[in-house]
Write a structure and sequence with these properties.
The protein is of the alpha+beta class. It has two domains: 2-59 and 306-335, Hypothetical Oxidoreductase Yiak, Chain: A, domain 1, CATH 1.10.1530.10; 70-180 and 224-277, Malate/L-lactate/L-sulpholactate dehydrogenase, NADPH binding domain (Ribosomal Protein S8, Chain: A, domain 1). It is built from 13 helices and twelve strands. The longest helix is centred in the N-terminal third of the chain and has 19 residues, at 88-106. It is globular and about 55 Å long. The protein starts with a strand and ends with a helix. It binds NADPH dihydro-nicotinamide-adenine-dinucleotide phosphate (NDP) and pyrrole-2-carboxylate. NADPH dihydro-nicotinamide-adenine-dinucleotide phosphate (NDP) binds next to strand 7, strand 8 and helix 12.
Length: 337
């Protein structure tokens, strides 16, 4: 059973829940926009369900709902934004113009977001950068829920990695995925719905393969995608979006959580590259060669990442979104609490 909502109604519902819970108007707006964009694009694991997580994180004192991020000029090609214990989204917004300006000036630039609480998908961020003509990469640790390949103990986060490439007459080429076999949000949604998880994505506390999401939460561990390859990529993310930028690893984030079950607390690294600065002269013929590659996917029988998401977006813009009735009731109860 589902309920249909317009995007405007969904935004109003989420923003009012977050404001009533104690988030500042700016945080409530930024959070609601990203949460509704997730649901709109068919990413339920980072959609309206996350409203509950944001409120829980606030109530457990693990996020500052009124924090104002501060921007620091770290180096000619590095901007550092201190989120000061707030959710990452306002910090991203505050640093974005600096990152774009630096990327155009230097050819390549980085934004380090520090001390942020993080719940969100990364595609909105790389998509926004790619829409300005920049190539973008973003990644962050999370909580240590994932065992490295060959190990049993959860040491790594679900560590998302996102990439955006500008396209002249099309939505940017974007991919964005957890380096765990599935996102933690997917395990949580299945657990709440009383459903099994796919085989090959998790082990129980004894190290045996499991399809029971409760066994994963009760001392088990998630697995990386692609075995040792995903494990190495995830470890790279721990390093470059953790100690490299002076912030926490997923193990440290989980320790900081202290059993509260709140959103992870760590940093995020965003890189931006300006195609016009890597070559002499006009980059358009090279960008046309990139187009030739991307346009060859569909005739080959493959689809581009984000194609499903852009299609879901078009449907939602026309018809609104559908969420489970029970989830809607939970959200309304929270608003009227
Ligand atoms: P998915 O496995 O659902 O999809 C990941 C990517 O792969 C998407 O870009 C998707 O495009 C693409 N894709 C999927 N199937 C195909 C296919 N058959 N052919 C081509 N491309 C395909 O993502 P995850 O569950 O791993 O992650 C979901 C979200 O969770 C991400 O947005 C991530 O940022 C977020 N996350 C956030 C974390 C955080 O700490 N903040 C931690 C972990 C995850 P499409 O969308 O079009 O299907
Ligand atoms: O789904 O793995 C996840 C996740 C972690 C933090 C936010 N989302």
């Amino acid at each position: 059973m589902t309920i249909q909502l317009t995007l405007a109604d969904a935004h109003a519902l989420v923003a009012s829940i977050l404001s009533r819970a104690g988030f500042s108007r700016a945080h409530a707006r930024a959070l609601a926009s990203t949460i509704v964009a997730g649901e709109r694009d068919g990413c339920a694991s980072h959609g309206l369900y996350r409203t509950l997580v944001c409120v829980h994180s606030l109530r457990t004192g693990k996020v500052d709902g009124t924090a104002l991020p501060t921007v620091h000029e770290q180096a000619p090609s590095i901007v550092r934004v201190d989120a000061r214990g707030g959710y990452s989204l306002l910090a991203f917004e505050a640093g974005l113009p600096h990152l774009v300006e630096k990327a155009h000036r230097q050819g390549i630039a980085a934004m380090a977001i520090n001390h942020c609480v993080h719940f969100s998908a990364l595609w909105p961020e790389v998509e926004r950068l790619a829409e300005t003509g920049l190539v973008a990469l973003a990644c962050n640790p999370s909580h240590a829920w994932v065992a490295p390949a060959g190990g049993r103990a959860p040491l790594l986060g679900t560590n998302p990695f996102a990439f955006g490439w500008p396209r002249p007459d099309n939505h940017p080429y974007v991919f964005d995925f957890a380096t765990s076999a599935v996102a933690r949000g997917e395990i949580e949604l299945r657990r709440r719905a009383g459903q099994l998880i796919p085989e090959g994505v998790a082990i129980d506390a004894a190290g045996h393969a499991t399809t029971d999401p409760q066994a994963v939460v009760d001392g088990g561990a998630m697995l990386t995608f692609g075995g040792y390859k995903g494990s190495a990529l995830s470890t790279m993310i721990e390093l470059i979006a953790g100690p490299l930028i002076g912030d926490l690893t997923s193990m440290e984030s989980l320790r900081h959580d202290g059993g509260a079950g709140a959103s992870p607390y760590h940093g995020e690294l965003v890189l931006a590259l300006d195609p016009s600065r890597f070559i002499d002269g006009d980059p358009s013929s090279h960008m046309a060669r990139a187009e030739a590659l991307l346009e060859a996917f569909a005739p080959s029988g493959a689809r581009l990442p984000s194609q499903r998401r852009y299609q879901a977006r078009a449907c939602s813009l026309a018809d609104g979104i559908r969420i489970p009735k029970a989830q809607h009731a939970e959200l309304v109860a929270l608003r009227d609490d």
